Amino acid sequence: xxxxxxxxxxxxxxxxxIPRAEGRRDTFxxxxxxxxxxxxxxxxxxxxxxVSFGAPTEFHWCGRITPADQMPQWRExxxxxxxxxxxxxxxxxxxxxxxxxxLEVSAKQAGADFAASQYGLAHANDAGRRNLRAGILxxxxxxxxxxNHANDIDFQIESDFSGLVAPGLPxxxxxxxxxxxxxxxxxDGVYAGQFVGAMYAESFFESDPVTLARRALRAIPxxxxxxxxVRDVLRWYEQNPDDWERTWRLVExxxxxxxxxxxxxxxxxxGEDAFCIDAKLNxxxxxxxxxxxxxxxxxxxxIACRCGQDSDCNPSNAAGILFTMIGFxxxxxxxxxxxxxxxxxxxxxxxxxxxxGACEKIARETVLAAGGRIERDEDGAECFVIPVRAPKVGxxxxxxxxxxxxxxxx
Length: 410
What we know:
The chain has helices spanning 3-16, 33-54, 86-101, 107-115, 123-133, 154-158, 160-164, 170-181, 188-203, 209-217, 225-239, 244-255, 279-292, 297-306, 313-326, 352-369, and strands spanning 28-32, 373-376, 382-387.
């Protein structure tokens, strides 16, 4: 056989190994279940670490960068502070709904479970739950006509679970966002959670934050202002790769001070010392942490936290995504040392091990429901075979110009 023939054969073999265009039903990615467990476990640790780290600074600096000398220091056992944080236990209400009622759970049932919760809430979560208790069913419970917090950060905070149970499956994340995100949010408030969830879902396969953000961007409407924010932050990062504070200032001018992007629902346009819980502004801080953190846990959490505003939630999302990329077995032990495996998250039935078991159960169902399968190798080790599907984005919603509520007579 000639050298030319050998080269052609090798080229053909290499091309056959490349996945065909996204959306084709014969394209799959493989994820060993052991790797899934390791990464999913890390995703929860990242959320816990980020919220525990940033909690002392929450809303202490608004419209200002937190001074470096005012930043908290990580201490042994700090990870356990997260067991009482609403950043964790609210999304576990949604996880429990999925565990009990399955992936096809109705929005009405999801709303009933959320309405029955007894923990304290604020902003969109509080308004949405009050609407549900008053008989305003989803998606109207998050509609701007009934909920003045529709663009707030709430579903962004608690969307992490959606990607952790849907590895490589953006359409499952989109569907979960439609069901749970509309309990309390609308438009960009929902897209914020779908974007964050899609980043988690892709973190099982991708370790470059820029690529991760670009792929997750396809899970939300391109014409939304949240998508515009993501594109802006990516562009500003490319222009200022070594100066996160410059990118922060650009974000501040457009997504905090400009009335065309802060729509006067809950947050008003402002500047220094002006409170803003809008999902776009705080979502930009998540991205700034991930992009400029250089895949370093401490740096990622620190930058996301120093951006200010909701400065425990944002490093929680950023660290959760980063830790998922890294995997539990490769984390710095200081973030896992002293983790209390027997303690139960406030208001839930979940200890840390039980939480992991619930996620794996739902992930198995999600992979199968998406047309994937679970195979075993010759040693009996399981592997998720996950279909690659192009994201199917829903219709555009704008909180400042919403479609009529589903039940307009209210």
